[in-house]
Structure formats: structure tokens, C-alpha cells
Amino acid sequence: MTLIDLPKNKRAKILALPEDKHLAAQLLEQGFAVRTEISLAHKAPFNGPIAFRLHNTKISLARAVAQQIKVDA
């Protein structure tokens, strides 16, 4: 399962970041780390960005990036 498949308000833990090292480094700087708890806050309409709750804050990601982050079910 990836972040894009996560139901709203359901908590999950990050299992793997994208294989692209540059993108993975950017996500790590934002707090996206393996075994970090995350939940879906909001999906923008018309294939817009997706907002997640992470470390007591909301962070938005493009759908293409969210599809590359694996989480547990």
C-alpha cells in the first residue's frame, strides 16, 4: 500500500521511501522517515496535492510523490 491509497484519518507507518536518492533526501528533511506514523488529512480535487498529518503538522505532497512512499496497512 502507498500513501495515495491511505484512507482518510487512518494511521499508518512509513515502510519505504522512494528509490530516487535526491527525492528521498528531501522527504527525510521534511520528516518523512521509515517507521514514522502518518495519516491522510485531505485530498485536493482534480488530482491536486494530498495533505498528511506528520509530527503534529500538515504537509502536502504531489500525488506522484505520494505514490512512491510505501506504508503498512
UniProtKB/TrEMBL annotation:
Start and end residues of each Ferrous iron transporter FeoA-like domain: 1-73
Zinc recorded as keyword: no
InterPro entries per the UniProt record, alphabetical: Fe-transptr_FeoA-like, FeoA_core_dom, Transcriptional_repressor_C
SUPFAM superfamilies: C-terminal domain of transcriptional repressors
Pfam families associated with the record: FeoA
GO-annotated molecular function: transition metal ion binding
Keywords, ordered alphabetically: Iron
Source domain of life: Bacteria
Protein name, UniProt field: Ferrous iron transport protein A
Species this protein is from: Litorilituus lipolyticus
Species lineage: Bacteria, Pseudomonadati, Pseudomonadota, Gammaproteobacteria, Alteromonadales
